[in-house]
């Protein structure tokens, strides 16, 4: 018997089976208030539609969470890991058809199609409501419906918002408990009349009487539907975190972006860090990068410059609000990390690895014989034997990945060894800088500073990564991801650009965060990366902060302000002068082609792009033609 079997086998059942968690937990709290009555009525309405066997009101306690995890282990739905290596941690294996966000089945059901815009999948609200009523009818038969009250941001905080998710997935409940603040405190907020967002989720796998459940219930038919006018989310058919933890991308970005538009703030796909210089001065930086562009690594950066420190405030989402002091304030509305495991290792992100010491739910990673987990990139050499993410025997000669490329870890942010002591401060932190970045082998310099807020919004609207043509040293086909929000903006993206401009008008010109574009991925003509990246990206942050302080000057270029190479702190690393020059080289002809691509992209919005951004594009062309 392998050591892992001691921890991963389901507990033996009695003839009656284990006592359900709802026998000890799950009673509806007795809380008075008109808002609570409305919530109860809504829950009863969803229950009448979905027909669960029971309703469990989640209290968010550690004891309840432990009981849910034990029940899932007993049912064979998750695997308890060896507590010697990974205490309080579990492994889930999804169905092979349910391993990622289903963007093709993600819809914005705004009343008018133009309000969704060309970058979203629009669907007519009345039509999709009929469809959802049909597929949700009886969808929770044989299951428990959990009622999960949650807060994005500290409960009661001035920048926080609350919601309730009903779900028939205990896996979703335990994940929501990590990613948000769950508990009865939220119900008291609702009872007092605070607005809350309605989110409904079902795996779409009802059970007939006596039918045996499967380890990962889901349905081939999937819908993730957002209603921006009524601030609702309905998700059907998927148990995967990105589709089932509705507080995350669905609420905290798509719905929150709509709330932010209406209330005058921004919900952004951004990391949030505090950078502390050798003199102890603190600066706050938010950064928006598309996937595979180094976002998590920057969120947990360990600077290679002596005396510098980075404290993590958030790794994925930031809510930004103009303050009465003319500054832009930011919070991380989440309480956990839902990160991609492959590529996370001691050589790439030791902080993330140290965060995962325990109390973590892993999904679709490989299992070691000793009851711990492994994935590609965790160590340089793979173990000799593993059980892969589908439960099959695996060796390095198997010719397939042991962990799914989108396998995940879900862990509390408080476990991060670099987490800021005040990361949960309800008021948030004032931003000094905003960074935009993509994966560009050509054209985009290592760092460039926007000349003002409008120019910075123009930069953000053009964030993109190159496809394979970039390897040939030309501006290839660009995968557009403006503000890293392409899959997550809940309304017309041209209007979203305009909203960024409006938010800037609420800030004092001398207190607004400075905006920069960075690119760690520029290559030389030989295909070699020109910049070492990872911890050495702190050298770019160092220059950015010295620009904010006014202690270094910059060089004006047609695309923005560039560093003087002698102002970069390169002590301890070897970057040849010719590489430095290539990192900041501006080719006007190539940039004019880039401007044509921008015009083409703007054209997809049917004349809705704000006039100031069109003016920025014209000014860019003028400067390039004169260069």
From TrEMBL:
Bias kind Low complexity: ranges? 8-20
- The active site consists of 293
Q: Matching Gene3D superfamilies, A to Z?
A: 3.90.228.20, Phosphoenolpyruvate Carboxykinase, domain 1, Phosphoenolpyruvate Carboxykinase, domain 2
Which InterPro entries does the annotation name? PEP_carboxykin_GTP_CS, PEP_carboxykinase_C, PEP_carboxykinase_GTP, PEP_carboxykinase_GTP_C, PEP_carboxykinase_GTP_N, PEP_carboxykinase_N
Query: Which HAMAP family would you find in this protein's record?
Result: PEPCK_GTP
Tell me which family the UniProt entry assigns to this protein.
Belongs to the phosphoenolpyruvate carboxykinase [GTP] family.
Its name, as the record gives it, is Phosphoenolpyruvate carboxykinase [GTP]
